Amino acid sequence: MADRSREVNRNPSSVDLVRRVRRALPGDAGFGDPLSAAGRDGAGTIARVAGRLFDDHPTATREMTLGGLQVWHALRERAGRGGGTREVTIVFTDIVGFSNWAMRAGDEDALVLLRRVAAATEPRVREHRGTVVKRLGDGMMAVFPSPALALDAVVDCLAGVAEVEVSGWTPSLRVGVHTGYPRRIGDDYLGTDVNIAARLAEKAGTSEILISETTRAGLDPERVPTRPKRTFRRGGVKGVPDDLSVHVALPR
After folding, report:
1. Quick one: which of 69, 61, 81, 49 has its CA closest to 17?
2. Residue 35 Cα distances to 141, 159, 192, angstroms
3. What is the CA radius of gyration of the chain?
4. Cα 32 from chain centre
5. Which residue, 78, 111, 131, sits at the end of a domain?
6. 125, 73: one domain
7. Are 148 and 230 found together in one domain?
8. Residue 114 belongs to what domain range?
9. Tally of structural domains, the chain
10. What average pLDDT does range 164-175 have in this prediction?
C-alpha cells in the first residue's frame, strides 16, 4: 500500500492534476520557487522550509503543500499585509556620470563613493517609511506608501548626496518616480509600473526628479510644484506607455 501511495504521489499525472488545481486557486500558482519564496514573510519562510523537506522529484504532496501556502500568501496580501495589491510609489535613483568617473578614479575610490552614497540615502529612505528593494550598481530602487513620502525622501537624499565628496568629485543623482500597483514577488516588485519608474530615472537629468502623472496627482502642488517634461519622448521608450504624462518635480 505504501509503495502504491508513493507511486501515485510521484506520478506525473497526479502532479499535473494538482498543478492545474493550483492555477485555479487565489494567488501566484508558481509560489514556492526561489523567486517567490525569497520574501521574509511567514509564507515565504515556510515555503523555503517545505522545499527542503522534499527531494527534487516533483510530487503531488509537494504541490498540495505549496498550494496551501499560495492561498495563505494571497489572503495576507488581500488583507493589506503582503503589499502585493496595494498602491505604492516606486523610486529609482542613479548616479550621473558614475561609470566614466569610476574608470578614472579606480575601483577603491569607486567603492568608497558607493558606500558613502548609500549611507547618505538609505537611512533617509527608511526615515520616510520607505523600503530599499534593491541596490543596482550605482543606483537604488525603493518603494513608499505614498507620493508625498517618496518626494520628501528624494529631496533629503539629493541633499545628502550633495555632501559626499571622494577624490575631489561630488556625485549627483537623477531620479524617477511612479505610483502604481506593481506585483510583489518575494522581496522584489515586477511589472509595468516598475519599468516606468526605471525609465523615468534613465531619462532624468542631473539632480532632476521626473515623476509620472499618477505620482503628481498624489502631491500637494503648494509643497511640490511641477512642470511638464516637454522634451520627454514617450514613443519608442521601452516599458513606458505612449500616453504617459511626465513632469519635473520642483520641491521647495
Report:
1. 61
2. 17, 35, 18
3. 22
4. 19
5. 78
6. no
7. yes
8. 88-249
9. 2
10. 97
